[in-house]
Amino acid sequence: MKHGLAAGPVQPPERADWTVEQGWKEYTPAQHAVWKTLYERQTRLLPGLACDAFIEGMRRLPMAADRIPDFEALSETLMKATGWQVVAVPGLVPDDVFFEHLANRRFPAGNFIRGAHELDYLEEPDVFHDVFGHVPMLMHPVMADFIQAYGQGGLRAQKRGKLAELARVYWYTVEFGLVRQGGGTRIYGAGIASSFSESTFAVQSASPNRIGFELERVMRTHYRIDDFQESYFVLDSLDDLLELAHIDFEPYYTALDSGPTFTPGQVLAQDQVLHAGTGEYHAN
Ligand code: HBI
Ligand code: FE
Questions:
Q1: What is the share, in percent, of the chain residues with pLDDT greater than 90?
Q2: Are strands 231-235 and 273-275 parallel, antiparallel or unpaired?
Q3: pTM to 2 decimals?
Q4: CA of 269 relative to ligand 2 center, distance in Å
Q5: Is 89 a pocket residue for ligand 1 (Cβ < 6 Å)?
Q6: Domains in the chain: how many in total?
Q7: Can you give the residue range of the structural domain that contains 59?
Protein backbone atom coordinates (compact mmCIF):
# COMPACT_ATOMS: atom_id res chain seq x y z
CA MET A 1 0.00 0.00 0.00
CA LYS A 2 2.90 2.32 0.73
CA HIS A 3 4.34 3.72 -2.48
CA GLY A 4 8.00 4.37 -3.14
CA LEU A 5 10.96 2.18 -2.35
CA ALA A 6 12.23 1.67 1.18
CA ALA A 7 15.65 3.14 0.46
CA GLY A 8 15.74 4.71 -2.94
CA PRO A 9 14.33 7.50 -5.01
CA VAL A 10 10.70 8.37 -4.37
CA GLN A 11 8.44 7.28 -7.19
CA PRO A 12 7.10 10.22 -9.17
CA PRO A 13 3.42 10.81 -8.39
CA GLU A 14 0.71 10.00 -10.89
CA ARG A 15 -1.10 13.24 -10.00
CA ALA A 16 0.61 16.60 -9.66
CA ASP A 17 -0.94 17.13 -6.22
CA TRP A 18 0.36 13.74 -5.05
CA THR A 19 -3.11 12.50 -4.08
CA VAL A 20 -4.02 8.86 -4.52
CA GLU A 21 -7.16 6.81 -3.96
CA GLN A 22 -7.57 5.86 -0.33
CA GLY A 23 -8.17 2.28 -1.49
CA TRP A 24 -10.41 1.57 1.46
CA LYS A 25 -11.52 -1.83 0.16
CA GLU A 26 -7.92 -3.00 0.03
CA TYR A 27 -7.33 -2.74 3.78
CA THR A 28 -6.92 -6.21 5.23
CA PRO A 29 -8.60 -7.45 8.42
CA ALA A 30 -5.17 -7.26 10.08
CA GLN A 31 -4.89 -3.56 9.14
CA HIS A 32 -8.36 -2.78 10.50
CA ALA A 33 -7.29 -4.64 13.65
CA VAL A 34 -4.25 -2.36 14.07
CA TRP A 35 -6.56 0.65 13.83
CA LYS A 36 -8.85 -0.93 16.46
CA THR A 37 -6.00 -1.53 18.88
CA LEU A 38 -4.72 2.03 18.53
CA TYR A 39 -8.18 3.60 18.54
CA GLU A 40 -9.36 1.79 21.67
CA ARG A 41 -6.13 2.47 23.55
CA GLN A 42 -6.25 6.17 22.73
CA THR A 43 -9.97 6.78 23.27
CA ARG A 44 -9.67 5.21 26.73
CA LEU A 45 -6.66 7.35 27.57
CA LEU A 46 -7.54 10.81 26.26
CA PRO A 47 -10.53 11.92 28.38
CA GLY A 48 -9.00 14.22 30.98
CA LEU A 49 -5.79 14.62 28.94
CA ALA A 50 -7.05 16.02 25.61
CA CYS A 51 -8.89 19.34 25.45
CA ASP A 52 -12.68 19.41 25.14
CA ALA A 53 -12.47 20.50 21.48
CA PHE A 54 -10.52 17.35 20.58
CA ILE A 55 -12.95 15.02 22.36
CA GLU A 56 -15.93 16.85 20.86
CA GLY A 57 -14.42 16.68 17.35
CA MET A 58 -13.83 12.96 17.71
CA ARG A 59 -17.36 12.37 18.90
CA ARG A 60 -18.88 14.17 15.92
CA LEU A 61 -16.81 12.39 13.24
CA PRO A 62 -17.68 9.08 11.55
CA MET A 63 -14.82 7.27 13.28
CA ALA A 64 -15.07 4.09 15.30
CA ALA A 65 -12.97 1.23 16.57
CA ASP A 66 -14.17 -1.39 14.14
CA ARG A 67 -12.63 -0.04 10.91
CA ILE A 68 -10.20 2.42 9.39
CA PRO A 69 -12.32 5.49 8.55
CA ASP A 70 -13.43 6.22 5.01
CA PHE A 71 -12.00 9.59 3.94
CA GLU A 72 -15.11 10.45 1.91
CA ALA A 73 -17.35 10.04 4.96
CA LEU A 74 -14.94 12.11 7.07
CA SER A 75 -14.87 14.80 4.41
CA GLU A 76 -18.64 15.00 4.29
CA THR A 77 -18.85 15.68 8.02
CA LEU A 78 -15.86 18.04 8.00
CA MET A 79 -17.13 19.97 4.99
CA LYS A 80 -20.39 20.74 6.77
CA ALA A 81 -18.61 21.77 9.96
CA THR A 82 -15.60 23.77 8.76
CA GLY A 83 -15.27 23.38 4.98
CA TRP A 84 -12.34 20.94 5.16
CA GLN A 85 -11.74 17.68 3.28
CA VAL A 86 -9.40 14.75 3.85
CA VAL A 87 -7.45 13.57 0.78
CA ALA A 88 -5.27 10.46 0.57
CA VAL A 89 -1.51 10.66 -0.01
CA PRO A 90 1.06 7.85 -0.04
CA GLY A 91 3.20 9.39 2.73
CA LEU A 92 5.16 12.60 3.16
CA VAL A 93 4.71 14.95 0.23
CA PRO A 94 6.97 17.85 -0.78
CA ASP A 95 6.53 21.00 1.31
CA ASP A 96 4.99 23.11 -1.47
CA VAL A 97 2.46 20.36 -2.27
CA PHE A 98 1.60 20.06 1.44
CA PHE A 99 1.08 23.82 1.79
CA GLU A 100 -1.01 24.04 -1.37
CA HIS A 101 -3.42 21.43 0.04
CA LEU A 102 -3.71 23.15 3.41
CA ALA A 103 -4.21 26.56 1.80
CA ASN A 104 -7.23 25.02 0.04
CA ARG A 105 -8.59 23.35 3.18
CA ARG A 106 -7.62 19.84 2.09
CA PHE A 107 -5.83 17.78 4.71
CA PRO A 108 -3.43 15.23 3.15
CA ALA A 109 -3.62 11.99 5.13
CA GLY A 110 -1.45 8.92 4.68
CA ASN A 111 -3.59 6.03 3.44
CA PHE A 112 -1.40 3.29 4.93
CA ILE A 113 -1.28 2.03 8.50
CA ARG A 114 1.68 1.00 10.64
CA GLY A 115 2.26 -2.71 11.24
CA ALA A 116 1.12 -4.56 14.35
CA HIS A 117 4.77 -5.00 15.38
CA GLU A 118 5.43 -1.24 15.37
CA LEU A 119 2.43 0.29 17.15
CA ASP A 120 4.50 3.03 18.76
CA TYR A 121 7.03 3.68 16.05
CA LEU A 122 6.36 5.82 13.01
CA GLU A 123 8.69 6.82 10.23
CA GLU A 124 6.04 8.68 8.26
CA PRO A 125 2.59 9.92 9.25
CA ASP A 126 0.11 7.08 8.70
CA VAL A 127 -3.68 7.02 8.75
CA PHE A 128 -3.81 6.76 12.54
CA HIS A 129 -1.63 9.81 13.13
CA ASP A 130 -3.23 11.86 10.36
CA VAL A 131 -6.86 10.94 10.92
CA PHE A 132 -7.11 10.21 14.63
CA GLY A 133 -4.55 12.87 15.53
CA HIS A 134 -5.38 15.74 13.18
CA VAL A 135 -8.94 15.45 11.94
CA PRO A 136 -10.79 15.98 15.27
CA MET A 137 -9.20 19.44 15.64
CA LEU A 138 -10.15 20.31 12.04
CA MET A 139 -13.76 20.24 13.30
CA HIS A 140 -12.88 23.29 15.42
CA PRO A 141 -13.42 26.55 13.48
CA VAL A 142 -10.34 28.28 14.91
CA MET A 143 -7.99 25.37 14.17
CA ALA A 144 -9.59 25.06 10.74
CA ASP A 145 -8.64 28.66 9.92
CA PHE A 146 -5.21 28.41 11.53
CA ILE A 147 -4.09 25.39 9.50
CA GLN A 148 -5.28 27.02 6.28
CA ALA A 149 -3.31 30.16 7.20
CA TYR A 150 -0.26 27.98 7.86
CA GLY A 151 -0.54 26.60 4.32
CA GLN A 152 -0.76 30.09 2.86
CA GLY A 153 2.07 31.29 5.09
CA GLY A 154 4.18 28.27 4.17
CA LEU A 155 4.22 29.20 0.52
CA ARG A 156 5.39 32.73 1.45
CA ALA A 157 7.94 31.47 4.00
CA GLN A 158 9.51 29.24 1.36
CA LYS A 159 10.09 32.23 -0.92
CA ARG A 160 11.46 34.18 2.03
CA GLY A 161 13.86 31.40 3.09
CA LYS A 162 12.16 31.13 6.49
CA LEU A 163 10.48 27.77 6.23
CA ALA A 164 12.40 26.22 9.12
CA GLU A 165 11.23 29.03 11.39
CA LEU A 166 7.60 28.75 10.32
CA ALA A 167 7.68 24.96 10.59
CA ARG A 168 8.55 25.38 14.30
CA VAL A 169 5.23 27.17 14.81
CA TYR A 170 3.38 24.22 13.26
CA TRP A 171 5.43 21.77 15.29
CA TYR A 172 4.80 23.43 18.64
CA THR A 173 1.09 24.04 17.97
CA VAL A 174 -0.63 21.69 15.49
CA GLU A 175 1.67 18.75 16.30
CA PHE A 176 2.76 19.20 19.93
CA GLY A 177 0.57 21.95 21.31
CA LEU A 178 -0.91 22.09 24.81
CA VAL A 179 -3.65 24.46 25.94
CA ARG A 180 -4.81 25.62 29.33
CA GLN A 181 -8.23 24.40 30.26
CA GLY A 182 -10.04 24.66 33.58
CA GLY A 183 -6.96 25.17 35.73
CA GLY A 184 -5.07 22.35 34.02
CA THR A 185 -3.13 21.73 30.84
CA ARG A 186 -4.60 19.69 28.00
CA ILE A 187 -3.49 18.24 24.67
CA TYR A 188 -4.58 19.61 21.31
CA GLY A 189 -1.51 18.66 19.20
CA ALA A 190 -1.88 15.67 16.89
CA GLY A 191 1.61 14.30 17.51
CA ILE A 192 0.76 13.95 21.18
CA ALA A 193 -2.89 12.91 20.83
CA SER A 194 -1.99 10.04 18.49
CA SER A 195 0.79 8.75 20.77
CA PHE A 196 -0.03 6.54 23.76
CA SER A 197 3.16 7.21 25.67
CA GLU A 198 3.55 10.91 24.83
CA SER A 199 -0.04 11.71 25.88
CA THR A 200 0.70 11.04 29.52
CA PHE A 201 4.29 12.32 29.26
CA ALA A 202 3.25 15.70 27.85
CA VAL A 203 0.53 16.39 30.42
CA GLN A 204 1.50 14.49 33.55
CA SER A 205 5.25 13.86 33.62
CA ALA A 206 7.48 16.09 35.75
CA SER A 207 10.24 15.81 33.14
CA PRO A 208 9.33 18.27 30.34
CA ASN A 209 9.10 22.05 30.59
CA ARG A 210 5.69 23.60 30.02
CA ILE A 211 6.07 27.18 28.91
CA GLY A 212 3.58 29.86 27.89
CA PHE A 213 3.44 30.14 24.09
CA GLU A 214 5.27 33.14 22.67
CA LEU A 215 5.57 33.37 18.90
CA GLU A 216 9.08 34.68 18.32
CA ARG A 217 10.47 32.49 21.10
CA VAL A 218 8.94 29.41 19.47
CA MET A 219 10.25 30.40 16.03
CA ARG A 220 13.76 30.38 17.50
CA THR A 221 13.41 26.98 19.15
CA HIS A 222 14.71 23.74 17.61
CA TYR A 223 12.64 20.61 18.13
CA ARG A 224 13.19 16.90 18.50
CA ILE A 225 11.80 14.61 15.86
CA ASP A 226 13.18 11.40 17.34
CA ASP A 227 11.79 11.41 20.85
CA PHE A 228 9.37 13.10 23.28
CA GLN A 229 9.67 16.89 23.38
CA GLU A 230 11.77 18.46 26.13
CA SER A 231 9.52 21.54 26.18
CA TYR A 232 5.87 22.04 25.34
CA PHE A 233 4.39 25.47 24.68
CA VAL A 234 1.00 26.18 26.17
CA LEU A 235 -1.71 28.44 24.76
CA ASP A 236 -4.01 30.29 27.15
CA SER A 237 -6.89 29.37 24.87
CA LEU A 238 -7.44 27.84 21.44
CA ASP A 239 -8.76 31.25 20.43
CA ASP A 240 -5.15 32.47 20.51
CA LEU A 241 -4.70 30.56 17.25
CA LEU A 242 -7.14 32.92 15.59
CA GLU A 243 -4.80 35.81 16.20
CA LEU A 244 -1.84 33.70 15.05
CA ALA A 245 -3.69 32.90 11.83
CA HIS A 246 -3.90 36.59 10.99
CA ILE A 247 -0.46 37.78 12.07
CA ASP A 248 1.83 39.29 9.46
CA PHE A 249 4.94 37.15 9.78
CA GLU A 250 7.12 39.51 7.78
CA PRO A 251 8.33 41.57 10.80
CA TYR A 252 9.12 38.30 12.59
CA TYR A 253 11.16 37.06 9.64
CA THR A 254 13.15 40.31 9.69
CA ALA A 255 13.75 39.95 13.44
CA LEU A 256 14.81 36.34 12.91
CA ASP A 257 17.56 37.39 10.50
CA SER A 258 19.63 37.98 13.63
CA GLY A 259 19.64 36.86 17.25
CA PRO A 260 19.84 33.48 18.94
CA THR A 261 18.21 30.14 18.39
CA PHE A 262 17.42 27.89 21.32
CA THR A 263 17.94 24.20 21.95
CA PRO A 264 14.83 22.05 22.56
CA GLY A 265 15.22 21.93 26.34
CA GLN A 266 16.43 25.46 27.00
CA VAL A 267 14.52 27.64 29.48
CA LEU A 268 14.93 31.42 29.24
CA ALA A 269 14.69 34.17 31.85
CA GLN A 270 11.90 35.74 29.79
CA ASP A 271 9.80 32.53 29.71
CA GLN A 272 6.48 32.22 31.43
CA VAL A 273 7.29 28.87 33.01
CA LEU A 274 4.16 26.94 33.94
CA HIS A 275 6.18 23.89 34.90
CA ALA A 276 9.97 23.74 35.17
CA GLY A 277 10.87 20.27 33.94
CA THR A 278 13.18 18.00 35.89
CA GLY A 279 14.63 16.78 32.58
CA GLU A 280 14.91 13.31 34.09
CA TYR A 281 13.55 11.54 31.02
CA HIS A 282 16.07 12.91 28.53
CA ALA A 283 18.93 12.66 31.06
CA ASN A 284 18.57 8.87 31.01
N1 HBI B 1 3.47 15.69 4.04
N2 HBI B 1 1.84 14.07 4.14
C3 HBI B 1 2.54 15.04 4.74
N4 HBI B 1 2.28 15.33 6.04
C5 HBI B 1 2.97 16.30 6.69
O6 HBI B 1 2.70 16.57 7.88
C7 HBI B 1 3.97 17.00 5.99
C8 HBI B 1 4.20 16.67 4.64
N9 HBI B 1 5.14 17.32 3.93
C10 HBI B 1 5.91 18.37 4.51
C11 HBI B 1 5.60 18.64 5.92
N12 HBI B 1 4.69 17.98 6.58
C13 HBI B 1 6.30 19.65 6.72
O14 HBI B 1 7.57 19.30 7.07
C15 HBI B 1 5.95 21.09 6.59
O16 HBI B 1 5.05 21.40 7.67
C17 HBI B 1 7.13 22.01 6.69
FE1 FE C 1 1.05 15.45 11.81
A1: 92
A2: unpaired
A3: 0.94
A4: 31
A5: yes
A6: 1
A7: 24-283
